Amino acid sequence: MRQDVHILIVDDEIIMRDSLSEWLREDGYKVVAVEDGFQALEKVKREKWDVLLVDLKMPRMDGLEVLEKVKEFNEEIPVIIMTAYATVDSAVRAMKKGAYDYIVKPFNPEEIGLAIRKIIAYQDLLKENIYLRQELEKKYEFKDIIGKSHKMQEVFALVKTVAKSNSTVLIESESGTGKELVARAIHSSSLRSEGPFVAVSCAALPESLLESELFGHEKGAFTGAVSAKKGRFELADTGTLFLDEIGEISQKTQVNLLRVLEEKEFRRVGGTELIKTDVRIIAATNKDLKARVEEGKFREDLYYRINVVSIQLPPLRDRKEDIPLLVQHFLTKYCIENKKEFEGLSEEASRILMKYDWPGNVRELENVIERAVVVAKERIILPEDLPPLAQLGGKFKPTSDMPLREVEKEHMLHALESHNWNITKTAKTLGIDRNTLASKIKKYQIKKR
Amino acid sequence: VSRIFILPIGFIDPAILRIVSRKVAARLNYNCKVLQNMEEPSYAFEPQRKQYSSSRILKEILNKERSHPVADGAAKLLGVVDVDLCTPILTFIFGEAQLGGRAALISLSRLRQEYYGLSPNPGLLMERAVKEAVHELGHTFGLTHCSNTKCVMYFSNSIRNVDVKTDRLCNGCCMLLSEKKRSVLE
């Protein structure tokens, strides 16, 4: 009935092997029979088997040892132990070692047929379950970006809409949230997907080099320019140019960039010829660009030119429901890379990851999981496999560029959270009275997260 | 013309043999002929199991055919016994066949109502015998078990399942049989 089900029989008696093989073949199964555990283990390592039927009493390696070794190699293979000498002790030992069933020879035809059919039905269910999970996970993935949270689903929808247009896009978010992934997703879903995707980190290069990097240079344009070189605008022609950390570029480069965006043409550094360009710009920043405009550090006209469509990527702390999905994704990725197998995270390790604030966002989470996969000794990731930072449980760390008001607000929020929003206890810890704390909560609009 | 030869082993009611021969011929579209009875299968008796080894009887059918050939290479041989059959791995069987081979065997023993403590029912016995005969011969043509409960190739691991199915092949098995027959002839 099932041509695609492969059964391996392990029995030292030829008459048993032949009889069982013949009978199972009549049922449409693909059957191979071997005479000992050594041959069986070879077969298990080299081929895929749906069911193993293993005799209990065999010379050199008995059925329980075969079962143990098979399970060490692949825990998922269902093994049925067969014996003509059934004892309660051997049955218990077989089941404890992970046998799917324990049946006594000779079998009632109904019994063995049913056992195999049950296994096949169970495996079909498992396969269907895996398929459905993958289908569901696809819904939560868009071009390598993962997130089932409402915020990320909104980002996916916006990316799909934006991709159809040719508009300039500004991605604003904290470091490590996946700005470049979003830029790549827009590119690969757009009509320009056949063209190149070129990324430039504006903060990584000094002003003089950035100009040359973006627009290219002619031979002799500056010391060291021994030959002419194409810039990123030329390399990205017909494709997409991703300008990361655009908030860092100098006023001079801002002017040149604005000109390219308006005129769709530019000159190489040291060149006179105008070069036409057909590039879609996607810019990204982890700074508050609007504030920089107000401070006079970023040109307003350039800001409006690049901010045609704005995508705000939420920080990981604002989409914590995505953490389990991201953890699973990185766990699978680094298990493959490191040739390791993990069942998952311990409850305590999961709790730590969920509690932590992830200032470094998804990138930090990825690094933590990569490290855990490398250092973990057990089949599950334990709290001690996580770096100390994550183990702190997300304590607030103010930075020197944070406004005092922000520091105070964050500090109060963390204090309130650590006391389960008990105002009296929090006020006591902070060394202020209850009324002052209450008025600060109101003033800063501190809310439960 | 290729044939199916029916070999009664020990005493078998000639009326059953006639019905089986007629119905098998109709269902499989092959000529059928009943041969002389073979001796009682005492050589296949297994004292420990108090049953008869079906593999031993099948072997005997093939040995006899080798020493006194009655059929061409494409013919099939169906042994009919009235003793309880077993194999080394199964507590009982209604019949056995060489998958894609020449010989098959059925037993009337567990097809009788009397086996289950009920009154004899000759009509039901014949129906069951025909079903098992077509089923085992189907295996010799290379057919495997079918999931259609009405198809004669539906797997019978109990007398209930024998009674549930019909003595006919479903459309799928019919097509497979035609193909197998054609490939044998080619």
Quick tags:
A: alpha/beta; 5-stranded parallel beta sheet; 18 strands; 48% helix; elongated; B: 186 residues; 5-stranded mixed beta sheet; 17% strand
Could you explain the architecture of this structure?
The complex is a heterodimer of chains A (449) and B (186). Helix content of chain A is 48%, strand content 15%. With 449 residues, chain A is α/β, with parallel strands linked by helices. In chain A, strand 13 (265-267) and strand 14 form a beta hairpin. The two termini of chain A are 56 Å apart. The two termini of chain B are 14 Å apart. The model of chain B has no long low-confidence stretch (mean pLDDT 92). Chain A binds chain B through residues 1, 13, 15-16, 19-20, 22-23, 25-28, 82, 105-110, 112-113, and chain B through 49, 55, 86-93, 96-99, 139, 144-147, 155, 157-158.
User: Largest beta sheet of chain A: what is the strand line-up?
Assistant: 2-1-3-4-5
Principal-axis shape of chain B? globular
* Rg on CA atoms of chain A, Å: 32 Å
* Biggest sheet character of chain B: 5 strands, mixed
Q: Biggest interface pair, residues each?
A: A-B, 21 and 22 residues
How many helices of chain A? The count is 19
Uncertain spans of chain A: none
Gap from first CA to last CA of chain A: 56 Å
Structural class designation of chain A? alpha/beta
Proportion in β-strands of chain B: 15-25%
- The amount of beta strand of chain A, in percent, is 5-15%
Distance between the termini of chain B: 14 Å
Shape, principal axes of CA atoms of chain A = elongated
**Element-level helix/strand string of chain B:** EHEEEHEEEEHHH
Can you give the helix content of chain A as a percent range? 40-55%
Q: Helical region count of chain B?
A: 5
Quote the average pLDDT of chain A.
Answer: 85
Give the overall pLDDT of chain B as a whole number: 92
Into which percent range does the helicity of residues of chain B fall?
25-40%
Oligomeric nature of the chains = heterodimer
Strand order of the largest sheet of chain B: 2-1-5-8-7
